[in-house]
Specification:
Strand 3, helix 5 and strand 4 form a beta-alpha-beta unit. The chain is mainly alpha-helical and about 525 residues long. Helix 4 runs parallel beside helix 5, helix 16 packs across helix 17 and helix 19 crosses helix 21. The protein contains 21 helices and 4 strands. Bound molecules: flavin-adenine dinucleotide and iron/sulfur cluster (SF4). Iron/sulfur cluster (SF4) binds next to helix 14 and helix 18.
Length: about 525
Protein backbone atom coordinates (compact mmCIF):
# COMPACT_ATOMS: atom_id res chain seq x y z
CA UNK A 1 0.00 0.00 0.00
CA UNK A 2 1.81 3.10 -1.12
CA UNK A 3 1.47 6.30 0.92
CA UNK A 4 -1.26 7.61 -1.39
CA UNK A 5 -3.59 4.58 -1.67
CA UNK A 6 -4.84 4.50 1.90
CA UNK A 7 -8.28 3.02 1.30
CA UNK A 8 -9.92 -0.35 1.77
CA UNK A 9 -12.86 0.71 -0.36
CA UNK A 10 -11.12 0.44 -3.74
CA UNK A 11 -8.75 -2.08 -5.31
CA UNK A 12 -8.00 -5.65 -4.23
CA UNK A 13 -8.14 -4.75 -0.54
CA UNK A 14 -11.82 -3.85 -0.89
CA UNK A 15 -12.68 -7.34 -2.15
CA UNK A 16 -10.39 -9.74 -0.32
CA UNK A 17 -11.26 -11.44 2.95
CA UNK A 18 -9.34 -9.44 5.60
CA UNK A 19 -8.51 -12.61 7.53
CA UNK A 20 -6.67 -14.00 4.51
CA UNK A 21 -5.04 -10.83 3.26
CA UNK A 22 -1.81 -9.04 4.10
CA UNK A 23 -0.50 -5.60 3.25
CA UNK A 24 2.98 -4.11 3.25
CA UNK A 25 3.44 -0.47 4.21
CA UNK A 26 6.82 1.20 3.86
CA UNK A 27 8.15 4.27 5.64
CA UNK A 28 11.03 5.68 3.66
CA UNK A 29 13.23 8.43 5.13
CA UNK A 30 14.93 8.43 1.70
CA UNK A 31 11.69 9.56 0.06
CA UNK A 32 11.10 12.17 2.76
CA UNK A 33 14.57 13.63 2.15
CA UNK A 34 14.19 13.99 -1.62
CA UNK A 35 13.19 17.64 -1.35
CA UNK A 36 12.72 20.11 1.54
CA UNK A 37 9.14 19.11 2.25
CA UNK A 38 6.94 21.18 4.53
CA UNK A 39 7.04 19.52 7.92
CA UNK A 40 3.23 19.32 8.13
CA UNK A 41 3.23 17.39 4.86
CA UNK A 42 5.68 14.82 6.21
CA UNK A 43 3.61 14.54 9.38
CA UNK A 44 0.39 14.10 7.40
CA UNK A 45 1.83 11.35 5.23
CA UNK A 46 3.47 9.46 8.03
CA UNK A 47 0.57 9.76 10.48
CA UNK A 48 -1.97 8.68 7.84
CA UNK A 49 0.21 5.71 6.86
CA UNK A 50 0.59 4.56 10.46
CA UNK A 51 -3.07 5.03 11.31
CA UNK A 52 -4.12 3.23 8.14
CA UNK A 53 -1.90 0.27 9.07
CA UNK A 54 -3.52 0.16 12.52
CA UNK A 55 -7.03 0.42 11.06
CA UNK A 56 -6.31 -2.48 8.72
CA UNK A 57 -4.83 -4.57 11.50
CA UNK A 58 -8.01 -3.94 13.51
CA UNK A 59 -10.03 -5.36 10.56
CA UNK A 60 -7.96 -8.53 10.69
CA UNK A 61 -5.59 -7.72 7.81
CA UNK A 62 -2.00 -8.87 8.39
CA UNK A 63 0.37 -5.89 8.24
CA UNK A 64 4.07 -5.81 7.47
CA UNK A 65 5.30 -2.37 8.50
CA UNK A 66 8.76 -1.69 7.08
CA UNK A 67 11.05 1.26 7.78
CA UNK A 68 13.84 1.33 5.22
CA UNK A 69 16.10 4.13 4.10
CA UNK A 70 16.31 3.75 0.35
CA UNK A 71 14.18 3.40 -2.77
CA UNK A 72 10.94 1.49 -2.28
CA UNK A 73 12.10 -1.26 -4.64
CA UNK A 74 14.97 -2.15 -2.30
CA UNK A 75 12.65 -2.85 0.62
CA UNK A 76 9.95 -4.51 -1.47
CA UNK A 77 12.21 -6.87 -3.47
CA UNK A 78 13.02 -9.29 -0.61
CA UNK A 79 9.42 -9.16 0.62
CA UNK A 80 8.10 -9.96 -2.86
CA UNK A 81 10.31 -13.04 -2.92
CA UNK A 82 9.40 -14.13 0.60
CA UNK A 83 5.67 -13.63 0.08
CA UNK A 84 5.49 -15.00 -3.47
CA UNK A 85 4.84 -11.70 -5.26
CA UNK A 86 3.04 -8.47 -4.42
CA UNK A 87 0.10 -6.67 -6.01
CA UNK A 88 -0.43 -2.91 -6.14
CA UNK A 89 -2.76 -0.50 -7.90
CA UNK A 90 -0.78 1.47 -10.46
CA UNK A 91 0.91 4.37 -8.63
CA UNK A 92 -0.34 7.86 -9.41
CA UNK A 93 3.11 9.37 -8.96
CA UNK A 94 5.62 8.99 -11.75
CA UNK A 95 8.43 9.09 -9.22
CA UNK A 96 7.07 5.92 -7.59
CA UNK A 97 6.40 4.25 -10.95
CA UNK A 98 10.02 4.84 -11.94
CA UNK A 99 11.28 3.53 -8.59
CA UNK A 100 9.25 0.32 -8.87
CA UNK A 101 9.76 -0.32 -12.60
CA UNK A 102 12.43 -3.04 -12.12
CA UNK A 103 10.12 -5.07 -9.85
CA UNK A 104 7.22 -4.68 -12.28
CA UNK A 105 9.51 -5.61 -15.17
CA UNK A 106 10.50 -8.98 -13.70
CA UNK A 107 7.04 -9.80 -12.40
CA UNK A 108 7.73 -9.58 -8.67
CA UNK A 109 5.25 -6.70 -8.44
CA UNK A 110 1.97 -7.02 -10.30
CA UNK A 111 0.25 -3.73 -11.12
CA UNK A 112 -3.53 -3.56 -11.43
CA UNK A 113 -5.55 -0.52 -12.54
CA UNK A 114 -5.96 2.26 -9.99
CA UNK A 115 -9.65 2.32 -9.03
CA UNK A 116 -9.55 5.78 -7.46
CA UNK A 117 -9.78 7.69 -10.73
CA UNK A 118 -13.12 8.80 -12.13
CA UNK A 119 -12.24 8.72 -15.81
CA UNK A 120 -10.21 6.70 -18.29
CA UNK A 121 -7.52 7.65 -20.78
CA UNK A 122 -9.96 6.63 -23.55
CA UNK A 123 -12.43 9.24 -22.32
CA UNK A 124 -9.68 11.82 -22.30
CA UNK A 125 -8.58 10.89 -25.83
CA UNK A 126 -12.08 10.92 -27.26
CA UNK A 127 -12.87 14.31 -25.69
CA UNK A 128 -9.94 15.97 -27.46
CA UNK A 129 -9.33 16.61 -31.13
CA UNK A 130 -6.22 14.42 -31.03
CA UNK A 131 -2.77 15.83 -30.44
CA UNK A 132 -2.37 18.89 -28.19
CA UNK A 133 -3.55 21.50 -27.47
CA UNK A 134 -5.79 19.77 -24.95
CA UNK A 135 -8.69 21.63 -23.38
CA UNK A 136 -10.31 21.02 -20.01
CA UNK A 137 -13.76 22.30 -20.97
CA UNK A 138 -14.17 19.71 -23.78
CA UNK A 139 -13.00 16.96 -21.42
CA UNK A 140 -15.34 18.17 -18.68
CA UNK A 141 -18.41 18.26 -20.94
CA UNK A 142 -17.72 14.72 -22.08
CA UNK A 143 -17.19 13.29 -18.59
CA UNK A 144 -20.29 15.06 -17.28
CA UNK A 145 -22.27 13.38 -20.05
CA UNK A 146 -20.61 10.00 -19.52
CA UNK A 147 -21.07 10.05 -15.74
CA UNK A 148 -24.56 11.56 -15.74
CA UNK A 149 -23.46 13.86 -12.89
CA UNK A 150 -25.61 17.00 -12.76
CA UNK A 151 -27.32 15.94 -16.00
CA UNK A 152 -31.10 15.81 -16.44
CA UNK A 153 -33.15 12.96 -17.85
CA UNK A 154 -32.92 14.46 -21.38
CA UNK A 155 -29.13 14.28 -21.21
CA UNK A 156 -28.81 18.06 -20.78
CA UNK A 157 -26.76 19.73 -18.03
CA UNK A 158 -28.87 20.65 -15.01
CA UNK A 159 -29.47 24.41 -15.04
CA UNK A 160 -29.05 24.60 -18.82
CA UNK A 161 -25.26 24.97 -18.98
CA UNK A 162 -22.19 22.97 -18.10
CA UNK A 163 -20.35 25.74 -16.27
CA UNK A 164 -21.37 28.50 -13.87
CA UNK A 165 -17.82 29.82 -13.72
CA UNK A 166 -18.76 33.28 -14.98
CA UNK A 167 -21.07 33.76 -11.95
CA UNK A 168 -18.46 32.54 -9.49
CA UNK A 169 -16.15 35.56 -9.35
CA UNK A 170 -17.30 37.67 -6.42
CA UNK A 171 -14.93 39.35 -3.96
CA UNK A 172 -15.55 38.52 -0.30
CA UNK A 173 -16.18 41.35 2.14
CA UNK A 174 -16.69 39.35 5.32
CA UNK A 175 -20.30 38.29 4.89
CA UNK A 176 -21.10 35.38 5.06
CA UNK A 177 -18.42 34.77 7.68
CA UNK A 178 -15.66 32.39 6.64
CA UNK A 179 -15.84 29.02 8.38
CA UNK A 180 -13.33 28.14 11.08
CA UNK A 181 -11.26 25.08 10.25
CA UNK A 182 -12.02 22.02 12.35
CA UNK A 183 -9.63 20.86 15.05
CA UNK A 184 -8.70 17.17 15.10
CA UNK A 185 -8.18 15.11 18.26
CA UNK A 186 -4.63 14.30 19.27
CA UNK A 187 -3.51 10.73 19.94
CA UNK A 188 -0.26 8.88 20.72
CA UNK A 189 0.39 7.96 17.07
CA UNK A 190 0.14 11.59 15.98
CA UNK A 191 2.27 12.76 18.90
CA UNK A 192 4.98 10.26 18.02
CA UNK A 193 4.98 11.34 14.38
CA UNK A 194 5.09 15.03 15.28
CA UNK A 195 8.05 14.39 17.55
CA UNK A 196 9.84 12.38 14.86
CA UNK A 197 9.34 15.07 12.20
CA UNK A 198 10.31 17.88 14.58
CA UNK A 199 13.59 16.16 15.44
CA UNK A 200 14.56 14.49 12.14
CA UNK A 201 13.45 17.33 9.86
CA UNK A 202 14.29 20.27 12.11
CA UNK A 203 15.67 22.32 9.20
CA UNK A 204 12.72 21.77 6.86
CA UNK A 205 10.31 24.64 6.22
CA UNK A 206 6.84 24.95 7.64
CA UNK A 207 5.11 24.85 10.98
CA UNK A 208 3.88 21.66 12.56
CA UNK A 209 0.22 22.15 13.47
CA UNK A 210 -0.99 19.31 15.71
CA UNK A 211 -4.61 20.49 15.70
CA UNK A 212 -4.72 20.39 11.89
CA UNK A 213 -3.26 16.88 11.61
CA UNK A 214 -6.09 14.81 10.10
CA UNK A 215 -4.71 11.30 10.09
CA UNK A 216 -7.45 8.79 10.89
CA UNK A 217 -10.41 7.76 8.75
CA UNK A 218 -12.59 9.43 11.40
CA UNK A 219 -10.65 12.69 10.93
CA UNK A 220 -11.21 12.48 7.16
CA UNK A 221 -14.94 12.01 7.74
CA UNK A 222 -14.99 15.01 10.10
CA UNK A 223 -13.26 17.27 7.57
CA UNK A 224 -15.60 16.17 4.82
CA UNK A 225 -18.70 16.71 6.97
CA UNK A 226 -17.38 20.21 7.78
CA UNK A 227 -16.68 20.94 4.10
CA UNK A 228 -20.22 19.96 3.10
CA UNK A 229 -22.00 22.01 5.73
CA UNK A 230 -19.66 25.00 6.15
CA UNK A 231 -17.98 25.46 2.76
CA UNK A 232 -20.11 24.06 -0.04
CA UNK A 233 -23.17 26.33 0.43
CA UNK A 234 -20.94 29.33 -0.44
CA UNK A 235 -18.26 27.58 -2.50
CA UNK A 236 -19.25 28.95 -5.92
CA UNK A 237 -19.60 32.75 -5.63
CA UNK A 238 -16.36 33.21 -3.63
CA UNK A 239 -14.27 30.65 -5.52
CA UNK A 240 -11.92 33.36 -6.84
CA UNK A 241 -11.92 35.63 -3.77
CA UNK A 242 -8.76 36.11 -1.66
CA UNK A 243 -8.47 37.48 1.85
CA UNK A 244 -5.88 37.92 4.56
CA UNK A 245 -8.63 37.20 7.07
CA UNK A 246 -9.12 33.64 5.83
CA UNK A 247 -6.59 31.41 4.04
CA UNK A 248 -9.13 29.09 2.50
CA UNK A 249 -12.45 30.99 2.61
CA UNK A 250 -15.08 28.49 1.39
CA UNK A 251 -12.64 26.07 -0.23
CA UNK A 252 -12.84 22.57 1.16
CA UNK A 253 -9.17 21.80 2.06
CA UNK A 254 -9.74 18.16 1.08
CA UNK A 255 -7.05 17.89 -1.63
CA UNK A 256 -4.51 15.99 0.51
CA UNK A 257 -7.16 13.53 1.70
CA UNK A 258 -8.40 13.00 -1.86
CA UNK A 259 -4.90 12.34 -3.18
CA UNK A 260 -4.10 9.78 -0.49
CA UNK A 261 -7.61 8.30 -0.90
CA UNK A 262 -8.81 8.78 2.65
CA UNK A 263 -11.68 10.47 0.80
CA UNK A 264 -12.66 8.90 -2.50
CA UNK A 265 -13.20 11.22 -5.49
CA UNK A 266 -16.28 9.24 -6.62
CA UNK A 267 -17.89 9.65 -3.25
CA UNK A 268 -17.28 13.38 -2.92
CA UNK A 269 -18.62 14.30 -6.36
CA UNK A 270 -21.75 12.19 -5.93
CA UNK A 271 -22.45 13.56 -2.47
CA UNK A 272 -21.96 17.14 -3.61
CA UNK A 273 -24.12 16.69 -6.70
CA UNK A 274 -26.94 15.55 -4.38
CA UNK A 275 -26.36 18.24 -1.74
CA UNK A 276 -28.95 20.84 -0.81
CA UNK A 277 -26.80 23.78 -1.99
CA UNK A 278 -26.99 26.29 -4.86
CA UNK A 279 -26.30 24.76 -8.27
CA UNK A 280 -23.39 27.16 -8.94
CA UNK A 281 -21.67 25.79 -5.82
CA UNK A 282 -22.31 22.16 -6.63
CA UNK A 283 -21.29 22.53 -10.26
CA UNK A 284 -18.21 24.55 -9.31
CA UNK A 285 -17.02 21.78 -7.01
CA UNK A 286 -17.82 18.94 -9.42
CA UNK A 287 -15.86 20.79 -12.14
CA UNK A 288 -12.80 20.93 -9.88
CA UNK A 289 -12.77 17.24 -9.01
CA UNK A 290 -14.33 15.53 -12.03
CA UNK A 291 -12.92 18.11 -14.45
CA UNK A 292 -9.65 19.75 -13.41
CA UNK A 293 -8.26 17.05 -11.16
CA UNK A 294 -8.83 14.28 -13.70
CA UNK A 295 -7.69 16.45 -16.61
CA UNK A 296 -4.39 17.19 -14.84
CA UNK A 297 -3.77 13.52 -14.25
CA UNK A 298 -4.36 12.70 -17.93
CA UNK A 299 -2.04 15.48 -19.10
CA UNK A 300 0.61 14.10 -16.72
CA UNK A 301 0.12 10.60 -18.14
CA UNK A 302 0.01 11.60 -21.80
CA UNK A 303 3.21 13.71 -21.55
CA UNK A 304 5.14 11.33 -19.30
CA UNK A 305 5.23 14.06 -16.68
CA UNK A 306 5.97 16.87 -19.19
CA UNK A 307 9.01 15.07 -20.63
CA UNK A 308 7.33 14.10 -23.87
CA UNK A 309 5.98 17.36 -25.28
CA UNK A 310 5.10 18.19 -28.87
CA UNK A 311 8.09 19.63 -30.68
CA UNK A 312 10.58 18.71 -27.97
CA UNK A 313 13.20 16.06 -28.71
CA UNK A 314 12.76 14.63 -25.18
CA UNK A 315 15.47 12.79 -23.24
CA UNK A 316 17.61 10.40 -25.25
CA UNK A 317 17.02 7.18 -23.32
CA UNK A 318 14.51 5.70 -20.90
CA UNK A 319 17.10 5.96 -18.11
CA UNK A 320 17.65 9.64 -18.88
CA UNK A 321 13.88 10.20 -19.02
CA UNK A 322 13.52 8.60 -15.61
CA UNK A 323 16.04 10.78 -13.85
CA UNK A 324 15.86 14.12 -15.71
CA UNK A 325 13.38 16.67 -14.39
CA UNK A 326 10.93 18.18 -16.86
CA UNK A 327 11.98 21.74 -17.69
CA UNK A 328 9.60 23.21 -20.27
CA UNK A 329 9.82 26.99 -20.56
CA UNK A 330 8.36 28.23 -23.84
CA UNK A 331 8.93 31.85 -22.80
CA UNK A 332 12.56 31.15 -21.97
CA UNK A 333 12.01 32.09 -18.31
CA UNK A 334 15.06 30.94 -16.38
CA UNK A 335 15.67 33.28 -13.44
CA UNK A 336 16.07 31.83 -9.94
CA UNK A 337 13.17 31.85 -7.49
CA UNK A 338 13.62 34.90 -5.22
CA UNK A 339 14.01 34.35 -1.46
CA UNK A 340 10.58 35.98 -0.96
CA UNK A 341 9.02 32.59 -1.79
CA UNK A 342 10.88 31.15 1.21
CA UNK A 343 9.63 33.85 3.57
CA UNK A 344 12.02 36.78 3.13
CA UNK A 345 9.75 39.87 3.07
CA UNK A 346 9.44 41.44 -0.38
CA UNK A 347 7.30 44.43 0.57
CA UNK A 348 4.54 43.17 -1.76
CA UNK A 349 1.73 42.56 0.71
CA UNK A 350 -0.10 40.07 -1.52
CA UNK A 351 2.98 37.89 -2.01
CA UNK A 352 4.24 38.13 1.56
CA UNK A 353 0.82 37.34 2.99
CA UNK A 354 0.25 34.26 0.85
CA UNK A 355 3.80 32.94 1.38
CA UNK A 356 3.39 33.41 5.12
CA UNK A 357 0.18 31.40 5.14
CA UNK A 358 1.65 28.61 2.97
CA UNK A 359 4.73 28.28 5.14
CA UNK A 360 2.52 28.16 8.23
CA UNK A 361 -0.11 25.76 6.95
CA UNK A 362 1.15 24.01 3.79
CA UNK A 363 -1.98 25.26 2.05
CA UNK A 364 -3.51 28.14 0.20
CA UNK A 365 -6.40 28.05 -2.20
CA UNK A 366 -6.41 27.99 -5.98
CA UNK A 367 -6.51 31.69 -6.86
CA UNK A 368 -3.74 32.61 -4.45
CA UNK A 369 -1.60 29.92 -6.11
CA UNK A 370 -2.49 31.05 -9.61
CA UNK A 371 -2.88 34.81 -9.45
CA UNK A 372 -0.38 35.69 -6.73
CA UNK A 373 2.38 33.07 -6.47
CA UNK A 374 2.52 31.85 -10.07
CA UNK A 375 1.51 35.21 -11.58
CA UNK A 376 4.29 37.13 -9.84
CA UNK A 377 6.90 34.44 -10.57
CA UNK A 378 5.86 34.45 -14.24
CA UNK A 379 5.99 38.24 -14.45
CA UNK A 380 9.54 37.99 -13.06
CA UNK A 381 10.63 35.33 -15.61
CA UNK A 382 11.29 32.79 -12.86
CA UNK A 383 12.19 29.32 -14.12
CA UNK A 384 9.00 27.20 -14.22
CA UNK A 385 10.99 24.24 -12.90
CA UNK A 386 12.24 26.16 -9.86
CA UNK A 387 8.75 27.37 -9.08
CA UNK A 388 7.36 23.84 -9.46
CA UNK A 389 9.95 22.46 -7.07
CA UNK A 390 8.96 25.09 -4.54
CA UNK A 391 5.24 24.22 -4.85
CA UNK A 392 6.09 20.52 -4.63
CA UNK A 393 7.99 21.02 -1.39
CA UNK A 394 5.74 23.42 0.49
CA UNK A 395 2.17 22.35 -0.32
CA UNK A 396 0.78 19.37 1.55
CA UNK A 397 -1.26 18.35 -1.52
CA UNK A 398 1.63 18.43 -4.03
CA UNK A 399 2.44 15.14 -5.77
CA UNK A 400 4.16 15.05 -9.14
CA UNK A 401 1.07 14.08 -11.19
CA UNK A 402 -0.84 17.12 -9.94
CA UNK A 403 1.76 19.76 -9.13
CA UNK A 404 3.62 19.62 -12.45
CA UNK A 405 0.60 20.13 -14.72
CA UNK A 406 -0.66 22.89 -12.45
CA UNK A 407 2.60 24.83 -12.34
CA UNK A 408 4.44 23.93 -15.55
CA UNK A 409 1.24 23.74 -17.56
CA UNK A 410 -1.18 26.21 -16.03
CA UNK A 411 0.53 28.61 -13.62
CA UNK A 412 3.61 29.58 -15.63
CA UNK A 413 2.65 28.86 -19.27
CA UNK A 414 5.88 26.80 -19.27
CA UNK A 415 4.38 24.34 -21.75
CA UNK A 416 2.74 27.06 -23.84
CA UNK A 417 -0.72 26.32 -25.22
CA UNK A 418 -0.50 22.61 -24.42
CA UNK A 419 -3.35 22.81 -21.90
CA UNK A 420 -4.24 26.49 -21.43
CA UNK A 421 -5.18 29.09 -23.99
CA UNK A 422 -2.98 31.88 -22.65
CA UNK A 423 -0.69 32.82 -19.76
CA UNK A 424 -2.54 33.54 -16.50
CA UNK A 425 -0.93 36.92 -15.80
CA UNK A 426 -2.40 40.13 -14.46
CA UNK A 427 -1.50 43.51 -13.01
CA UNK A 428 -2.56 44.93 -9.65
CA UNK A 429 -6.16 45.64 -10.72
CA UNK A 430 -7.11 41.95 -10.66
CA UNK A 431 -5.59 41.38 -7.22
CA UNK A 432 -7.23 44.56 -5.90
CA UNK A 433 -10.66 43.57 -7.25
CA UNK A 434 -10.68 40.07 -5.77
CA UNK A 435 -8.81 40.54 -2.51
CA UNK A 436 -8.33 42.74 0.53
CA UNK A 437 -4.53 42.56 0.20
CA UNK A 438 -4.00 46.00 -1.34
CA UNK A 439 -5.72 47.82 1.53
CA UNK A 440 -2.89 46.75 3.85
CA UNK A 441 -0.05 47.32 1.40
CA UNK A 442 2.61 50.07 1.29
CA UNK A 443 1.89 50.33 -2.44
CA UNK A 444 -1.25 51.71 -4.02
CA UNK A 445 -2.67 49.46 -6.76
CA UNK A 446 -3.90 52.48 -8.74
CA UNK A 447 -0.78 54.61 -8.38
CA UNK A 448 2.59 53.09 -7.60
CA UNK A 449 2.18 49.31 -7.32
CA UNK A 450 4.99 47.68 -9.33
CA UNK A 451 2.86 44.65 -10.28
CA UNK A 452 1.10 46.58 -13.06
CA UNK A 453 4.27 47.78 -14.81
CA UNK A 454 5.64 44.27 -14.35
CA UNK A 455 2.63 43.03 -16.29
CA UNK A 456 3.23 45.47 -19.16
CA UNK A 457 6.95 44.73 -19.17
CA UNK A 458 6.14 41.01 -19.37
CA UNK A 459 3.91 41.56 -22.40
CA UNK A 460 6.56 43.71 -24.06
CA UNK A 461 9.38 41.19 -23.45
CA UNK A 462 7.32 38.26 -24.68
CA UNK A 463 5.38 39.93 -27.47
CA UNK A 464 7.19 37.86 -30.13
CA UNK A 465 6.14 34.53 -28.53
CA UNK A 466 2.59 35.72 -27.72
CA UNK A 467 1.80 37.57 -30.95
CA UNK A 468 0.16 34.58 -32.66
CA UNK A 469 -2.14 33.84 -29.71
CA UNK A 470 -5.71 35.05 -30.42
CA UNK A 471 -6.50 35.34 -26.69
CA UNK A 472 -3.63 37.80 -26.26
CA UNK A 473 -4.67 40.08 -29.11
CA UNK A 474 -6.51 42.60 -26.91
CA UNK A 475 -3.77 42.79 -24.30
CA UNK A 476 -1.09 43.27 -26.95
CA UNK A 477 -3.19 45.94 -28.70
CA UNK A 478 -3.33 47.83 -25.37
CA UNK A 479 0.40 47.40 -24.98
CA UNK A 480 0.99 49.00 -28.37
CA UNK A 481 -1.04 52.03 -27.26
CA UNK A 482 1.30 52.54 -24.32
CA UNK A 483 3.72 55.42 -24.87
CA UNK A 484 7.38 54.76 -25.50
CA UNK A 485 8.20 56.55 -22.27
CA UNK A 486 5.86 54.33 -20.23
CA UNK A 487 7.23 51.19 -21.83
CA UNK A 488 10.76 52.30 -21.05
CA UNK A 489 9.68 52.89 -17.46
CA UNK A 490 7.97 49.45 -17.28
CA UNK A 491 11.22 47.79 -18.37
CA UNK A 492 13.16 49.81 -15.81
CA UNK A 493 10.79 48.79 -13.01
CA UNK A 494 11.10 45.15 -14.04
CA UNK A 495 14.89 45.42 -13.72
CA UNK A 496 14.72 47.13 -10.32
CA UNK A 497 12.14 44.70 -8.90
CA UNK A 498 13.92 41.69 -10.32
CA UNK A 499 17.30 42.70 -8.89
CA UNK A 500 15.91 43.66 -5.50
CA UNK A 501 13.91 40.49 -5.17
CA UNK A 502 16.73 38.22 -6.26
CA UNK A 503 18.94 39.88 -3.67
CA UNK A 504 16.23 39.39 -1.03
CA UNK A 505 15.82 43.15 -0.50
CA UNK A 506 12.45 44.67 0.38
CA UNK A 507 10.72 46.89 -2.16
CA UNK A 508 9.34 50.24 -1.14
CA UNK A 509 7.52 53.03 -2.99
CA UNK A 510 10.51 55.39 -3.06
CA UNK A 511 12.14 53.04 -5.60
CA UNK A 512 9.56 53.83 -8.28
CA UNK A 513 7.63 56.91 -7.26
CA UNK A 514 6.19 57.56 -10.69
CA UNK A 515 5.21 54.00 -11.66
CA UNK A 516 1.64 53.20 -12.74
C1 LIG B 1 0.19 27.09 -9.53
C2 LIG B 1 -0.75 26.05 -8.98
C3 LIG B 1 -0.25 24.96 -8.30
C4 LIG B 1 -1.12 23.98 -7.83
N1 LIG B 1 -0.61 22.88 -7.19
C5 LIG B 1 -1.42 21.90 -6.76
C6 LIG B 1 -0.91 20.75 -6.11
O1 LIG B 1 0.28 20.61 -5.93
N2 LIG B 1 -1.79 19.81 -5.67
C7 LIG B 1 -3.14 19.95 -5.84
O2 LIG B 1 -3.88 19.09 -5.42
N3 LIG B 1 -3.64 21.01 -6.48
C8 LIG B 1 -2.84 22.00 -6.93
N4 LIG B 1 -3.37 23.09 -7.54
C9 LIG B 1 -4.82 23.12 -7.81
C10 LIG B 1 -5.68 23.75 -6.69
O3 LIG B 1 -5.15 25.00 -6.35
C11 LIG B 1 -5.78 22.85 -5.46
O4 LIG B 1 -6.22 21.57 -5.84
C12 LIG B 1 -6.78 23.39 -4.45
O5 LIG B 1 -6.46 24.71 -4.12
C13 LIG B 1 -6.81 22.51 -3.22
O6 LIG B 1 -7.51 23.12 -2.18
P1 LIG B 1 -8.97 22.67 -1.77
O7 LIG B 1 -8.96 21.22 -1.42
O8 LIG B 1 -9.45 23.63 -0.75
O9 LIG B 1 -9.72 22.85 -3.14
P2 LIG B 1 -11.25 23.22 -3.50
O10 LIG B 1 -11.24 24.57 -4.12
O11 LIG B 1 -12.16 22.97 -2.40
O12 LIG B 1 -11.52 22.20 -4.71
C14 LIG B 1 -11.93 20.85 -4.48
C15 LIG B 1 -10.95 19.88 -5.08
O13 LIG B 1 -10.84 20.04 -6.49
C16 LIG B 1 -9.57 19.56 -6.92
N5 LIG B 1 -8.95 20.58 -7.78
C17 LIG B 1 -9.33 21.85 -7.97
N6 LIG B 1 -8.55 22.45 -8.88
C18 LIG B 1 -7.64 21.54 -9.26
C19 LIG B 1 -6.56 21.57 -10.16
N7 LIG B 1 -6.25 22.67 -10.87
N8 LIG B 1 -5.82 20.47 -10.28
C20 LIG B 1 -6.10 19.35 -9.56
N9 LIG B 1 -7.12 19.28 -8.70
C21 LIG B 1 -7.88 20.35 -8.56
C22 LIG B 1 -8.73 19.34 -5.68
O14 LIG B 1 -8.62 17.96 -5.46
C23 LIG B 1 -9.53 20.02 -4.59
O15 LIG B 1 -9.36 19.42 -3.34
C24 LIG B 1 -2.51 24.10 -8.04
C25 LIG B 1 -2.99 25.20 -8.71
C26 LIG B 1 -2.13 26.17 -9.19
C27 LIG B 1 -2.68 27.33 -9.93
S1 LIG C 1 -0.81 47.07 -4.05
FE1 LIG C 1 0.28 45.74 -5.46
S2 LIG C 1 1.86 44.72 -4.23
FE2 LIG C 1 0.39 45.62 -2.82
S3 LIG C 1 -1.06 43.98 -2.40
FE3 LIG C 1 -1.90 45.15 -4.09
S4 LIG C 1 -1.17 44.11 -5.93
FE4 LIG C 1 0.08 43.37 -4.22
Amino acid sequence: MPYDQLSDRIGPLSRLDPDHTGIVVVESPWKAARRPYHRQKLALILANLRHFALEQAARGVAVRHVVADGPYRDSLAPLAEELGGLTMMEPAERELRVDLAPLVGDGRLRLVPHEGWLTTSEQFASSQKGPPPWRMDAFYRQVRRDSGLLMDERGKPVGGKFSFDAENRQPWTGDPPAPREPVFPRDPVKEEVLELVAVSFADNPGELRPDALHATQADAEALWAWAKTECLPHFGPYEDAMSRRSEGLFHTRISFLLHVHRLLPARVVHEVAALDAPLSCREGFVRQVLGWREFMRHVHGRTDGFRDLPGSPGPKSAAAAASTPATPSVLGADLPLPPAWWGKPSGLHCLDGVVDSVLRTGYSHHITRLMVLANLATLLDVSPRELTDWFWAVYTDAFDWVVEPNVLGMGTFGAGELMTTKPYVSGAAYIDRLSDYCAGCRFDPKKNCPVTPLYWAFLARHEPELRGNPRMRLALASLRKRSVERRRRDAEIFEVVSQHMRAGRELDPTLFAAAD
